[in-house]
Amino acid sequence: MTDNNKHVAKRRKVENYELYDLLNLNERNEEDRKKLDNDAVIRVVQQKPKLAAQEYSFSLYDSCVPLIKAIMLRAPVEVIDALCCPEALSWTTRALHEALKHSASYDVIALLLEKQPNAIKEKDSRDFTILHVACYDRAPLEIVSLLLDRWPEATKEKTWIDDTPLHVACHVGVSVEVVSLLLDRYPEATKEKNRRGDTPLHVA
């Protein structure tokens, strides 16, 4: 069976295609993202809530719940809220990562944190916290501030190579305002060294 046939076969396991068809757009293409019918997504989920809990193969290499795909398509907070069923919320850590990667709004980030407060403390395979990811993706000041308000101690967390959020922020070149905020919350971060012996200043 070819990869494409496997994709089709996996899609056929889904009970209903309505939500899949609405969200099956290319998130990397701006024109495609504009085709997202937000009202239709909300209407389908209201009529058939179980569809929001199903996993769909939106690509040959990945399957996810509609919440994740909607975030990747930069859907507004009303759509994200409609897709936040209990099953989908088990994906909140990835949802937050995707939201930061795809420049989601402050309201979307705040909603996800409100739905699953503990997700902010979970780490990925590189031991990145959500704050590390926010710094890496150059999130705006208001979002970094939101994350710090929800978990002030996040400034002290380290990745698998002992990078603090300030290391990451300095390495990718975030705004001066974000660096100042991180320093204000944890001044001692300037003295922290990673496994290579580098302080944040060394990696800037």
Question: What are the SSEs and their pairings?
Answer:
Blueprint: H1 3-11, H2 18-23, H3 30-33, H4 38-47, H5 66-72, H6 77-82, H7 86-89, H8 92-101, H9 106-115, H10 130-136, H11 141-150, H12 165-172, H13 176-185, H14 200-203
Helix pairs in contact: 5-8, 8-9, 9-11, 10-11, 10-12, 11-13, 12-13
What features would you describe in this structure?
Keywords: ANK repeat, Repeat. InterPro entries: Ankyrin_rpt, Ankyrin_rpt-contain_sf. It is a single chain. This protein has helices at 3-11, 18-23, 30-33, 38-47, 66-72, 77-82, 86-89, 92-101, 106-115, 130-136, 141-150, 165-172, 176-185, 200-203. With 204 residues, it is mostly helical. It folds into 2 domains: 1-122; 123-204, Serine Threonine Protein Phosphatase 5, Tetratricopeptide repeat, CATH 1.25.40. Helix 5 runs parallel beside helix 8 (92-101). The longest helix is centred in the first third of the chain and has 10 residues, at 38-47. The radius of gyration is 19 Å and the shape is elongated. Mean pLDDT is 92; it is low at 1-14.
